[in-house]
Description:
Elements (H helix, E strand, L loop, with lengths): L4 E5 L2 H7 L15 E8 L5 E8 L2 E7 L8 H11 L4 E5 L3 H9 L2 E6 L3 E6 L22
Parallel strand pairs: 4-5
Antiparallel strand pairs: 1-2, 2-3, 3-4, 5-7, 6-7
Amino acid sequence: MRKNVTEIPYNTKNINHYKSPGNLLRHARSGKDCQGIMLLDSITGSLIGYIGWQGNTIIAFEVTKEYRQQGYGNYLLGRALSSGCTSLTVDKKNLGAISLYARNGFIVARDNGKILWMTQKQFSIKLPRKQPLIFLSETPNL
């Protein structure tokens, strides 16, 4: 990811400012409780991408074609995950996005033939009953 990036809030005002018929924001959604970020190229002012979420659900996420495969998608998704997002929907034909989500711990929860509902995989550890946990405070000398 390049250093010349400006981060601005994902909100209706910024969406409307950067929206045009040919760019990604034609699909952007926002709402009362929507949060997120948008990335701009600081030199050109071009939109790099955006991610928006409501509660724990990602509702909008795209990176412009010219900025893909440069780490921006991982950065944006990481920001949403650190804010508690655990679910999203994606077009079943969008293999690049599905791959990105899978690499970040998402699994398919539901498939209606066109749209996938994905959630973060929940990990659990089963411990044997009635056996205490032992914590070592020092590494033993071997």
